[in-house]
Design a protein that fits this description.
single chain, four-stranded parallel β-sheet, disordered N terminus, globular, alpha/beta
Length: 323
């Protein structure tokens, strides 16, 4: 089974630790004025994917409130800046849950102001992909340069990673709120069970083992990896960044050479370039443009992750069956 390029886990651990997103803190179980009753636990998540996973782990646990910081959006947090409302939310938080892998670099300075927080980095233990650099020749680089790689932080788009993230959330909450440890454990196990069928559906796609795809969202490398497909062309586009004419010409050449007929897009911006390249390389046969969900926005519901991932895999299955 062909897997994507995995980052050396020692390097990943060093990166995670350097972010200081550790399970530390004090005073998470605060007392009310009468000192006879524990205050409710307020859990803040950095953005939507972490929020939906936290909802699963905290489902039905009395006295626990989960709040999401960055509002659901089509893209990720690359250019996000903290708002006044975000700072006020952090002031009331007992626990802060983050994706990690430098996704929340905007929090680096802010968290130092809240030493009382329990902070959970959900990337710990996940399988991490690196962004392929097609411009570099390893034979011409020394060891240190080869280690200087760009991490792909969109780990939640692999269901197996989502389970690991839920487990990291569980561990953080069990430390912050040991009274409800059994419930956190039970909820996490339920979520893991719900992912078993989804992971089996992904395994069923291995009939496409080796199928090359073109992706127009960095996170879809994880979807391709779990479905045992190969990313032949990767163009990361958004409203602030467009591919150059040279990049598009090189992509077209790779698409023709490898007979790539599947184009995975997240939004209209990616679709525009996918349509352009599909048309330009149509001499190889009609391409399929599939709009998938990066799961960075959606219903504020614990089942949103499962439903979104099931839909993604259904789209991939139907497309592959018609090829």
């Amino acid at each position: 089974m062909t897997k994507g390029v995995l980052l050396d886990m020692k390097k990943a651990l060093a990166i995670c630790l350097s972010m200081v997103f550790l399970l530390t803190g004090c005073g998470a179980q605060k007392q009310n004025a009468d000192t006879t009753k524990e205050a409710d636990l307020t859990v803040v998540t950095s953005f939507y994917p972490v929020y939906t996973l936290a909802l699963n782990v905290t489902d039905g646990v009395e006295g626990v409130t989960v709040k999401n910081m960055a509002q659901p959006q089509a893209g990720c947090l690359h250019d996000y800046e903290l708002t006044t409302a975000d700072m006020k939310m952090l002031e009331t938080a007992d626990v802060l849950l983050v994706n990690g892998l430098d996704m929340e670099s905007f929090l680096d300075d802010a968290i130092a102001q809240y030493p009382q927080l329990y902070i959970g980095d959900t990337s710990m233990g996940t399988d991490i992909l690196v962004v392929p650099d097609h411009d570099h020749d390893d034979d011409e680089e020394d060891f240190e340069e080869r280690l200087d790689v760009e991490i792909n932080p969109h780990i939640w788009l692999n269901p197996a990673n989502a389970v690991k993230q839920a487990e990291a959330i569980r561990d953080t909450l069990m430390q912050a709120d040991p009274e409800h440890a059994a419930q956190y454990q039970e909820n996490t196990q339920k979520f893991a069970e719900s992912m078993k069928q989804i992971l089996q559906d992904a395994v069923d796609l291995t009939a496409a083992d080796g199928t090359k795809v073109a992706t127009f969202h960095e996170g879809f490398a994880y979807l391709a990896d779990v479905a045992v497909m190969q990313v032949g062309v990767s163009i990361d586009v958004d409203e602030n960044e467009e591919p150059s004419a040279k990049e598009l010409a090189e992509a077209a050449e790779v698409i023709r050479k490898n007979n790539i007929r599947l184009f995975l897009v997240a939004d209209d911006i990616g679709k525009k370039y996918a349509e352009m390249l599909a048309k330009e390389t149509a001499d190889n046969g009609e391409g399929k443009i599939l709009q998938l969900d990066p799961l960075t926005s959606g219903a504020m519901d614990k089942d949103a992750y499962r439903i979104g991932m099931e839909k993604n895999l259904k789209i991939l299955t139907e497309a592959l069956s018609e090829m």
